[in-house]
What we know:
The structure holds 2 protein chains of 2 kinds. Chain A is an all-alpha fold.
Amino acid sequence: xxxxxxxxxxxxxxxxxxxxxxxxxxxxxxxxxxxxxxxxxxxxxxxxxxxxxxxxxxxxxxxxxxxxxxxxxxxxxxxxxxxxxxxxxxxxxxxxxxxxxxxxxxxxxxxxxxxxxxxxxxxxxxxxxxxxxxxxxxxxxxxxxxxxxxxxxxxxxxxxxxxxxxxxxxxxxxxxxxxxxxxxxxxxxxxxxxxxxxxxxxxxxxxxxxxxxxxxxxxxxxxxxxxxxxxxxxxxxxxxxxxxxxxxxxxxxxxxxxxxxxxxxxxxxxxxxxxxxxxxxxxxxxxxxxxxxxxxxxxxxxxxxxxxxxxxxxxxxxxxxxxxxxxxxxxxxxxxxxxxxxxxxxxxxxxxxxxxxxxxxxxxxxxxxxxxxxxxxxxxxxxxxxxxxxxxxxxxxxxxxxxxxxxxxxxxxxxxxxxxxxxxxxxxxxxxxxxxxxxxxxxxxxxxxxxxxxxxxxxxxxxxxxxxxxxxxxxxxxxxxxxxxxxxxxxxxxxxxxxxxxxxxxxxxxxxxxxxxxxxxxxxxxxxxxxxxxxxxxxxxxxxxxxxxxxxxxxxxxxxxxxxxxxxxxxxxxxxxxxxxxxxxxxxxxxxxxxxxxxxxxxxxxxxxxxxxxxxxxxxxxxxxxxxxxxxxxxxxxxxxxxxxxxx
Amino acid sequence: xxxxxxxxxxxxxxxxxxxxxxxxxxxxxxxxxxxxxxxxxxxxxxxxxxxxxxxxxxxxxxxxxxxxxxxxxxxxxxxxxxxxxxxxxxxxxxxxxxxxxxxxxxxxxxxxxxxxxxxxxxxxxxxxxxxxxxxxxxxxxxxxxxxxxxxxxxxxxxxxxxxxxxxxxxxxxxxxxxxxxxxxxxxxxxxxxxxxxx
Lengths: 648, 198
């Protein structure tokens, strides 16, 4: 039985046992449902083996929404524990585990796939391409992300969750202080998902650089495509640093090396540096595509072209450059000296300049626009002031001398939620609402949608503004409780209520999807928002090949010009279209990676070696395989086009 | 499959030119990977915790042999690509074969070197310095090992299917990878070994 002991949870509680039962029942229900409705074949042919960027995008979207739920439950538990002084809802260990998984899940397994979802679905359509540069690699990226996320998520029922924070600083994350396998899960699950993300970065850089439709020069690309390009460049240069950091951390924990240990010459601060050399650019990987989404939405619903296109592009490029030069501001208090702190203080404050440029560009786009308040636009309008508050507190934190007061307090927690929620989460929800009709052929309900925005904003202010106050007053982050005499109680209760209101907002999104599936009109045409860029120029639902004829582009807003100035987008006649074949290998490789990661987490060496061989066998099979894809004939294209035109 | 005959075979289809660009971007990521390892190495190089330091550990002879073997292999793979462009299948396979044999020779000397280090009391667990030394060299060595099998598969495919646009593309990309490993080795040789022996 000794072998199985390692899989037990070190700190069990009734909630975790209940979760185990719930997970078991859900898995059984899914398997039974698929079998009963005979959907296994459909699932395999249409989804698990697909290489279509639109379907991969939708799979990312579903994963992101699931993880939003998981991370949200974590958040509610944290706020509930802190709502009253000396609460006994969670003990310190559980609290540690929950804030660690909340951070990792929300950033890496919710925000990242949400962005990947929109990038996958939208970018090839915006540049008039038929798919991404490497469709099969794209499928592999998704499955690696998905298996990484699943591996991370089983940690709390098998072996124990990571409990050293989402930053997993050493020596706390070392074997001495984190005895359970939780931190192994952290290192290996993120590694697997990170490799997938790196491949996405390479894939989308190549796609955007080489596969744009005729006439679309770099400076005629839509803003979301530009932001995706910049974000993917950051991915390619930041993620390898994470790969190394995680590999060194894994070796410290499993092979007895001394990179981050406190003995034998190890240097714990090295982890903090490596982590944030990746971690800070990561923040911009999240926020730049969000800015891109808001740019599209604000321009569409202000009925004006985007103000200052070139300055928008250059500000993103400058932000991307700066993002690699600010990492030490995450640990001003760790004693690297006044000179270093001053330099990082200045680079950090300097980022506010290009960001400010973007804020003003959005305001000038709105100025004298014929503003139409739809749900996506309402998100954008709420985003601008809320995000600015977050930006201003960011500049406060950037002052290294003052940071000694803010460091590791709730002030910091309030700041980064203040930029991530109105920045990234609002952008993703706005993008979801905006692109929903293109993805699924009907619109989400506007009335419920606007309720959602207001609830989220009110809940957000109530939840996070009090943290600025208690933070300045000295409430430390990551502390599982506090005494009544501190006076933090009422503020934390307000936060808890705010979090509850936000939870209602998120629940309304689910209800909105249900409501709209049942009642929304299916007769919406291919351009329901009267939009400006190419993704709206094709049919809804989008055919497999995206565009029957590659569009000819002469401006930044080709679709708008074709509608208003009568410029012809689709010149010429149908030709046969080359498309990639589906493949099961990415999914199978993902599964092997899952087994590989699981064996690695627990240090079970024989399966680890076997799965490693399995991964290389998959790569070798791919090398020897001949796969030229297939052609869609002119007849088939004509048939599809006639059918879709009839539907519109 | 549209083939543009005005371009070299490895660039001749759209898919091929996408793959070459994609691989260059991947090499950019690899530069970051090795760059991070080097930065970590320079941070930890003096943290020997009473164990052997670089001057005690390094010997010039095996390292020079490794360097000559790997640099020579970079030359032979260049000849292999040249032969490929001339359409000479046998010469190409021969040069690729020699390249891989040189790579194998490099790996044998590196493994010998590792065994020597362990005998002198420097294992991966000895100190921060030895941890990062073995990790940096090992990462490079693992790349060469992977490259060995990759190159082997390409030789087999060229043997079976001839110099097709696909095979030319694979071979060319593999040559980029192999040259890149050589560049990394030059940095290892200069900044880890030579500097460490001074």
